[in-house]
Structures are given as C-alpha cells and as structure tokens.
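Sequence, please.
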C-alpha cells in the first residue's frame, strides 16, 4: 500500500507556480525598458504578466524634433520595445519635465495599480539628477498605499497584494543606490537588447550618451558580481532589509 502511494506521488505533476504580475513605473518612456526590461523579459519567460507604465514619453529630449513630433516617435518606439519583451504598456497623461508631485498624480497611479493588480512594483530610486525620476519615486510609493485603502475613492476595489516595491538601477539615480537583490536574466538578454534598440536614443541618434553600451555592459558586470552571465540589480527600502533566522545555517 505504501509503495503504491509513493509511486502515485512520484507520478504526480510538480506544482506550478502561480503567474505573478509585475508593474514597472518609469518617469519617461525608455527608463524602465533600460533598467528593468531584461528582468521583465525574464519574468515573462517564466509565465508572468509584465506591464510598463510610462508617466511621460520623455518627449523633450530630442534637439532635432519638436516635443510634439518626438512624442509620436517615442510612443511608437515604446510600443515596439514592449512588444519585443512581451510587456503590456500604459502611457501616463503627463508632459516631460512637468510631472506633478501632487495628489492628482498619486490618484492616477493608484488607479493604475488597482487596474493592473500587481504583485510587485518596480520604479525609480529616491535620489536622482532628474526631478521627474524623484517625483515618480515619491508618487509611486504613496500610490501603492493609496491603492490598498478603502478611503481612496475609485470605481475599482482596493488592491492590497503588492508584495514588494523594488528600485531599478539607473545611472541617473545613482546617489545612495546599492543593489540589494541580484536577479539572473541571462535567458532574456537577447529580446531585451532588441527591445531597447527600438529607441533611437539608445541606438545613438539623439544624444551622445552611449545608452546601449552602458546598460548592456552594466548588466554583464552585475552578472559577474553575482556569478551569472547577466544580472539585474534592485534596491529596496532600508526598512525591508531585515532577515530573522532561528540560527546561522
């Protein structure tokens, strides 16, 4: 009898992890593609749902085009990049460099969180040389709380299942940032590289900064530090950096 039960257990299919939803929120189109895109592509391969919210298009950064013209281009590029990694994409209603740090922007992001229902949220670190990045951080942190409480009036019910908020490794957000988590993304580098090259700014046609070389090289360097071929680094709030063990193992 025991032998028969053991055979039945061995023949049963292994438990399959439930798909998760990851929402990456960036100040500008390309911010999350560059910093978290490889991770999103990796999670997509694992069967998860991945979504990017671009608060603005970052349409003010092309010296050769008007903001209106570049906005059309950036939206097209962002849609192509999202498609390359299998992500859904949402575009916020705000203008480049004019992202408001107010209740209205918090309510907007809280509404997106209730709509998307993420298990995990990825966004900017709290310190940056770009004010839109710092604003996005402040807005997202508050919006996660707002989305969870009854007091926030919305047609959608509260969403209380955000298990963690993580901060992406962006060269413009370097002050005080130190990777706490290293995630192996070696299996997703090719679709990620294809995705970020959809942006002209990454290919080198808009600004002099070598975005493609920096982020692909940085991801490889993080891989070396973590014993992998390619890795993405994420930070968390200090309050989360605590582990409780019964003993050293």
């Amino acid at each position: 009898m025991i032998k028969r039960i053991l055979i039945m257990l061995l023949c049963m299919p292994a438990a399959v992890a439930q798909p998760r939803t990851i929402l990456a929120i960036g100040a500008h189109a390309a911010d999350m593609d560059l910093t978290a895109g490889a991770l999103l592509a990796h999670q997509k391969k694992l069967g998860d749902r991945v979504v990017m919210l671009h608060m603005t298009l970052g349409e003010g950064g092309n010296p050769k085009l008007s903001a209106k013209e570049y906005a059309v281009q950036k939206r097209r590029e962002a849609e192509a990049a999202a498609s390359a990694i299998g992500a859904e994409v949402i575009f916020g209603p705000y203008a480049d460099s004019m992202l408001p740090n107010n209740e209205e922007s918090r309510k907007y992001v809280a509404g997106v969180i209730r709509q998307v229902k993420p298990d995990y949220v990825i966004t900017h670190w709290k310190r940056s040389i770009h004010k839109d990045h710092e604003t996005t951080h402040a807005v997202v942190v508050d919006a996660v709380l707002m989305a969870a409480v009854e007091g926030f009036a919305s047609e959608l019910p509260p969403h209380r299942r955000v298990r963690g908020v993580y901060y992406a490794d962006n060269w413009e957000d370097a002050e005080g940032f130190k990777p706490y988590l290293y995630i192996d993304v070696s299996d997703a580098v090719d679709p990620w590289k294809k995705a970020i090259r959809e942006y002209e700014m990454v290919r080198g046609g808009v600004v002099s900064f070598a975005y493609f070389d920096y982020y692909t090289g940085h991801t490889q360097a993080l891989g070396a530090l973590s014993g992998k071929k390619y890795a993405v680094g994420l930070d968390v709030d200090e309050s989360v950096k605590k582990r409780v063990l019964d003993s050293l193992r």
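The beta strands are 21-28, 49-56, 88-91, 120-123, 164-168, 181-184, 231-235.
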